[in-house]
Every structure is written in C-alpha cells, then in structure tokens.
Amino acid sequence: MERRKLGKNGPEIGAIGYGAMSFSDMYGPTNEVESHAILDACRDLGVTYIDSANIYGMGKSETAIGTYLKADPGARADFVIATKATITTDAEGKRAFDNSAAHLEAELDKSLQRLGLDCVDLFYAHRRAPGYPPEELAGNLGRLVEKGKAKAIGLSEIAPATLRRAMTEFPVAAVQSEYSLSTRAPELGLVQACAELGVAMVAFSPVGRSLLTDAPIPRERIADLPFLRSNPRFMEPNLSENLRMMQGFRALAAEMGTTAAALANAWLLARGPHVIPIPGTRSVAHLRDCVAGADLRLSPEDLARIEAALPLGWAHGDRYSDEQWQGPERYC
Fold this sequence. Notes:
By secondary structure, the chain is α/β, with parallel strands linked by helices. It has twelve helices and twelve strands.
C-alpha cells in the first residue's frame, strides 16, 4: 500500500488506516474474536494506523487492541496506535468535555493500561471544550509527549482557527474530522490549513456511515442503532433520498470495475497527500473493499464523473442531530 506521513515529522503509515470505533458495539454487537480478525487483516493489507478512543465501548475498543498485542507482542511493530480523551459526563450525567492537564493524563494512563503500552504514537483531544484556549489545550497535550506517554498530539473535530492557535504552542501531528463525499465541510478551510501546516488530515467515516457503499445498513437495523436512528441522514424522508442519490455512484463504481467503498476512499486519497481515510468495519470483506481504494488512481476525468454523480451538497439532512453536534466546532 502507498505510504503517507502522519504529520510533518511523524512516521510513515499506510495511506488508509482503521477506525477502531467498530471494536465497540456502535454499529452492532461485536466481540474480541472478530476484532482480532480485523487486526490480522490490517496486517495482511498494510493497514498500519489504528485509531481508538477511551469512550469507544467505554474501553472495549482499547482492550481488544491490548489483548491482541499481548497475545502477539511482535505485532506492536506493525502498528501506529492512536487514542483520544476529553469526552466525559457532568454531575447530571450529561455529555461534557474536560481539557485539563489532570484529566488528559489520568485518561491516557487508563488507556495505556488497557492497551498494554507505555506510550501511544498519537494522543488526541477528542473535543475542545467550549471557550477553552487552544494554546492551553495543546500545551496540556504536549506535556504528555514530554513525559514520554505519547509521541505526538492531535485534535479532533476542530476549526481551522483552533488548529492555527494550537500550533503556536505545540506541534500538532494530525487533525481528525468527518470527511467524505457526503461530508465536505472540511474543504472550507480545514483541509487547506492542514496542508499548509504539515498536519495530517485524518478522515473518519469515509464511507458516510455505510451510505457510500454497495450495501448501506438496512432500514430494519437502523432502528436498533441509537446513533443512526437519531441521525438526520438516516431518518425519513432523508434516508430514501440519500439512497436514491447513491444509485448513480454505485453504478459508476461498477462501471469502473470497483466497489463504491473503494471508490469513496480513493476519492479522499486524491484530495491531497496529507489526507488519510480511516474506515471502520466489523467485516474483513468490507475492510478489503475499503482498502482497495488505495490501489485506484483516479484521473481528472474520473474525478469529474464522481462529482457529477454526487455533486457538492448532495446529501439530504445534516451529518449530526442537535444533540450530536455538542462538541464539534462549527466554523462555516
């Protein structure tokens, strides 16, 4: 697989990584055996970047990675491992965000214990708390690098202005944001700022939470998935419109001799050498479809045909509900 840099001074990783939220039960029940099979497939396919977080299954995702590495210690050399913290709950049980140095270090320590590691390759602030100075947040993260608990820092779901301010305090290796053919807001400044500053743009949900595949999550399953059943793009009438719009893209992928998932990931890779998609899946077969996008080389004509099939702004419904929008920074 093609290799890309995880930030200006970071390691080279496979151009497509893996989003380990799928090691939790976010998109349906899973278990450690299935998660370990995905990690085996990642090694076979050249997927080296594994992206987790403390809240994915409330530690379940990190634990699955940790038990895999414990069973095969040599596997550690094959992976660049990232995790995140800052999302928590307040006294009333509502979602809250803690960017303090004490919280970040305490949560990273627990993550390291679950992962069975002394140091992670990348540690993200999962969300910036409203009003919290980006410079202070970057400094809090940076001190964990200085302590040897992380090799680099990242920020998730932030605005370009936040990145620029954070960079004045400590080098940011990566910014993570939802980015795909169905979510293109990062093109309004974030993708460009990352390229200018030498920061990796890590794109999660690159296949639009299944919409950009040949087999979107069936309607009957959506009702059992709390996140999707309250997500505007998966609620009617938006869902039917989105599925209708996807027909032309799936047909285009088939005409090009590939799958919709592969083509969606290839499109992201073509947005810039700093863009790194991280599809998440519980299926080895679907992982192979996604990773096949790294072998596609899209011509200007190919890109134009993709744009014609899914023109800018085609998706019906917002990417988040009002409740889901708590935390991500809106900047346009």
